[in-house]
Amino acid sequence: MKFLRSAAIISFITMYPAMVIAGEFQVSPIMMNLGKTAKSGVITVSNVGDEKINLQVQATEWMQDKEGKDHYSESTDIVFFPKIISLEKGDSQLIRVGMKGAPPQSEKTYRLYIEEIPQPKKANKGKAQVAIAIRFGVPIFIKPTSESLKGLIDPVTVEKGTATALVRNTGNVHFKITSVTVTGKTAGGQEVFSKEIQGWYLLAGAERSYSVPMPKEVCSKLEQIQFDIKAEALTLSSSRPMHKEMCLP
Question: Cα separation of 206 and 2, whole Å?
Answer without folding.
Answer: 30
